[in-house]
Amino acid sequence: MAMTGKRRDSGLVKAMPLLLPAYAWLTLAIFLPLSAMVYFSLLTSMSPSGQSATLTLGNYATFFSDPLYATLLVRSLELGLIVTLVCVLIGFPAAYVLAKIFKGRAREAIFLLVILPFWSNSLVRVFSWSMVLREGGILDTALNAILPFKVTFDLMYSYPAVIIGLVHSYLPYMVLTCYLSLQAIDDALIEAARSLGASRFTTLRRVIAPLALPGVLAGSALIFIPVVGSFMEPRILGGHGGTLYGTVIEDQFTAVYNWPLGAALSFILLAVVLVILLVSAPVLRKAA
After folding, report:
1. N or C end of the chain: smaller count of CB under 10 Å?
2. Coiled-coil segments, which residues (predicted)?
3. How does pLDDT run across 181-212, given as a tens digit for each residue?
């Protein structure tokens, strides 16, 4: 045991020159902006006229005194859960097909389609959905060209439009993380379950799903956290009905110029997400 510990310490020492630049950069890129935002959140104001500002906790108290912020935060958490669930329902089967059914060039072609959204700007993707979902848009025109009767298809400025835009933006994360977990499952385990008389559904439930669960959880975390604070898709596709916690934070920085309140609301969101992760950590650790 002692020799094993010494070997691990020796390996860590040898790896430090390679790890240090990346971790130093991550430390600077994460903690310096966070430190600045902590300072901003404690200021009474950020007046461009140069007036002095004092430190206060009033920005955090605003969240608890106005129930609107808590309501919007709950709506954002619900949106994160819905988008994550939809991504699991769509992404897991797609990842299974990629990992266990398609081979060679077919797999490469499907992979290209999966990562294709990353090749375009996120703002362009959202605006493209506005041209598809609006009345008189691409989908509305196509339906009226095919169907013998007149239909009106208009999902713009609605909650479903926000969900569609967010799923399109974050679905690749679920597909890729699930693919890595499914690819690591030995095909012999699946064949053994089928040879012992297990149905396809039983094999999926008892063999494939438990082994692929780490990938599902990783993808869920990568999707849920940014979706809760999203503001671009709700702003463009949801309109006034898409007002969520993230859009309110954006307004504080870009429209109202109330950076202290925006920073405080951001840290409250960060704290809520961290609490959710801490509470679910035992379940996630057991599943992984």
Report:
1. N
2. none
3. 999 888 888 889 888 888 888 988 889 988 99
What burial class does residue 61 get, using C-beta atoms within 10 Å of its C-beta: 0-12 exposed, 13-18 middle, 19+ buried?
Answer: exposed
As to burial, measured by CB atoms within 10 angstroms (0-12 exposed, 13-18 middle, 19+ buried), residue 23 is exposed
Residue 190, domain extent: 66-287
Between CA 21 and CA 164 the distance in angstroms is 39
pLDDT digits (tens, 9 = 90+) for 221-259: 999 999 999 999 999 999 887 889 999 999 999 888 889
How is residue 65 written in tokens? 């005194």
| Residue 238, C-beta contacts closer than 8 angstroms, at least 6 positions apart | 157, 158, 159, 161, 162, 244
- Is position 61 within any domain? no
Number of structural domains the chain divides into: 1
Residue 20 to residues 14, 28, 35: CA-CA distances in angstroms? 11, 12, 21
- Please report, as a single letter, which amino acid is at residue 148: P
Are 126 and 165 in contact, with CB atoms under 8 Å apart? Answer: yes
3-class DSSP state of 43 = strand
Give phi and psi for 43, each to the nearest 5.
-90, 150
Which of 89, 105, 91, 156 has the alpha carbon at shortest distance from 129?
Answer: 156
User: pTM to 2 decimals?
Assistant: 0.86
Q: Is residue 100 part of a domain?
A: yes
The sign of the CA dihedral 169, 173, 179, 185 is negative
The enclosing H or E element of 135 equals: none
**Confidence class for position 109, pLDDT limits 50, 70, 90:** confident
Percentage, residues of the chain above pLDDT 90: 38
For 269, how many CA atoms within 13 A lie in the half-sphere containing its CB? 29
